[in-house]
Write a structure and sequence with these properties.
With 201 residues, the protein is mainly alpha-helical. The protein is 74% helix and 0% strand. It contains 10 helices and no strands. Helix 1 (3-29) crosses helix 2 (36-43), helix 4 packs parallel to helix 8 (128-150) and helix 5 runs antiparallel to helix 10 (185-198).
Length: 201
């Protein structure tokens, strides 16, 4: 490995270290209570070093959420429907992937969805919200196909938001209340997803 390659790798490793420290602090102490200096102390670097990578604290948050949403979007895009042509089954598979993804990344779910970004900085052009819109547009399109297949006359926005509220709710509960005596988690998730999808029939 050459000098340039080694420096590039070290730079990326430090960037990831900054993101991980910020993620952990945002979850533990809340975004408003974490300073760039606090993050720098966590990784034992000066705040100046962090500013070489990120413009400000909001930029750090934006990057954390954007990267995680991009990974989720890629996984949903790569879902292979195979012989499945039933839009209800396709929606069911996508919703299950969505839930499973966030259950596997609970800290990132807390960071991404437990903060009102517009309230934090209403003037900022949050990049992560572009991806969030794409994800919801994908959901809406899948719900639309289900409505068309059912032959029902339904309010697309109401139906889409109802489905999203269902899966968001189960993720939030499992992430925020892990010590609750839940029934078998897989069965619970399947039940919620099936109920949301079956409501479109």
């Amino acid at each position: 490995m050459g000098v340039a390659e080694r420096r590039a790798r070290e730079k990326e490793e430090l960037r990831l270290e900054i993101l991980q420290a910020a993620r952990e602090l945002f979850v533990k102490e809340g975004f408003a209570n974490v300073s760039m200096r606090r993050i720098a102390e966590r990784i034992e670097y000066s705040p100046t070093t962090i500013y070489l990578y990120f413009q400000d604290k909001a930029g750090l948050l934006d990057c954390i959420v954007e990267e995680r949403l991009q990974e989720l979007a890629n996984q949903l895009r790569d879902l292979d429907p195979g012989p499945i042509v039933d839009p209800f089954e396709s929606l069911r598979i996508g919703l299950r992937k969505y839930v499973d993804y966030w259950i596997e990344h609970p800290q990132d779910f807390r960071v991404a969805y437990m903060s009102d970004l517009r309230e934090l900085d209403p003037e900022r052009p949050w990049r992560c919200q572009i991806l969030a819109k794409e994800l919801f547009d994908r959901l809406r399109d899948n719900v639309r196909k289900c409505i068309e297949a059912s032959g029902k006359t339904s309010d697309l926005e109401l139906a889409s938001q109802s489905v999203w509220a269902s899966v968001y709710g189960i993720i939030s509960l499992l992430v925020m209340k892990p010590s609750f005596p839940w029934v078998d988690q897989d069965q619970l998730i399947d039940s919620v997803v099936n109920t949301a999808v079956n409501g479109l029939h």
